[in-house]
């Protein structure tokens, strides 16, 4: 049986056992249990890592938080009570939220935050998704510790489209700061400079044995049996880093990304961006190997600034059938060989392998004709420092980030509430630019003026609009990869490349047959990615960089999808307990 070790307050200590129990429970009750109910008490808890103890925001005192289990088609109700000193909202990352936009969770987009002492019940249905998603705080940097897995099983009686694993284990990759992350981002926004980097990466909340002053119990351990197959439900919950992941002397077969099946392929190492999930099959060796193996993750980045250049490790251990009580601590341990931190070619080659199943049972419904085309530049920029001020950004300025040169400013009223009430004046504008207002050589020498404008702007789409969006990285302050997450929709990644997107020649290379379907995609460093989706979900839907620092600097925008003409194409009224600003 798979197992892990952690501090008693961590739900991940028994993650594998919980998954196994939930699988048996859901299999037993099947279609009769159509609503899964959970109680989330958001409260502070003391946690010790790397010889330091600090108070962090948790759900039910657990870090990482509890796992939500459901089957495809189930309804989910999560009653959240905020007993912390912070404003809080929770996002169910990747859940489509069809006609349930009030439950999506981003503060000041679909709801006002739950204030200290307040409560809210998130209600939604899992539709057309099966695999791994996750939930996390969606305000400020609280998601540094406020997160947990969502495990979605197929409907009762429906098998996986790949050999059924013997056991399933959530693996959440995260970051740990010795300092208070709310103070870290507050200082960065005050000074205009970059934030302090994390002190460690974590696997299921544990930093592992490679860090100084890491306690023995602070290592995630996965105990396996020879000859068995394990499905690792990988989630990148890190705030600011894409990560390579590998298990020494073992291969990983990718079968699912972002709760959508893919054509299986096998690799030694994978890359996973913040916000993304991936289910991979790990086949244990056929006989007891007499060795242990590191499971490691470390960053992929092209940033010009500082970053956490460390490695987190968990340990894969085999049960010895000849001596169950023997200690494995004296066995040799092997480490994987991970790519170089800036190996963009590896990342491009890996992502090119991702393909939808595109089968009769799981078709790829790629929009073949397009109603609206958009071209968005994404990247860093600057704001001027205040008169007589002192700022720590480039050349004495303040760091900023933008889409089409618009750095998004959160309103003080939730966009969805303003839209539904017909009171958009003074809250948001509907003139978000479909293309850059001032084209330039996006991946060439940067322009002299690096300033960006502020605004709270949305794109308005009629219900059912088919959209093609090209996301283009810029080199204004250095080319970087930007993982973009779209709320409310899945999309198809139909193309990607390096350099500037060429509208005359690049569309001919698009894959419109079996492109991967996702909710979060990395915009290549110094390149572009093209996605397609159908605007079939009325509401206001956030799109933002899932590098938390870039989102804090304004790399975000919103889509407003109007109601359709039929009753099942209209957003219902808000629930009576929706938090107010």
From TrEMBL:
Its EC number is 1.10.3.2. It comes from Panicum miliaceum (Proso millet). It catalyses: 4 hydroquinone + O2 = 4 benzosemiquinone + 2 H2O. The lineage of its organism: Eukaryota, Viridiplantae, Streptophyta, Embryophyta, Tracheophyta. Keywords: Apoplast, Copper, Lignin degradation, Metal-binding, Oxidoreductase, Repeat, Secreted, Signal. Binds 4 Cu cations per monomer. Residues 1-33 form the signal peptide. This is Laccase. One of its GO terms (cellular component) is apoplast. InterPro entries: Cu-oxidase-like_N, Cu-oxidase_2nd, Cu-oxidase_C, Cu-oxidase_fam, Cu_oxidase_CS, Cu_oxidase_Cu_BS, Cupredoxin, CuRO_1_LCC.
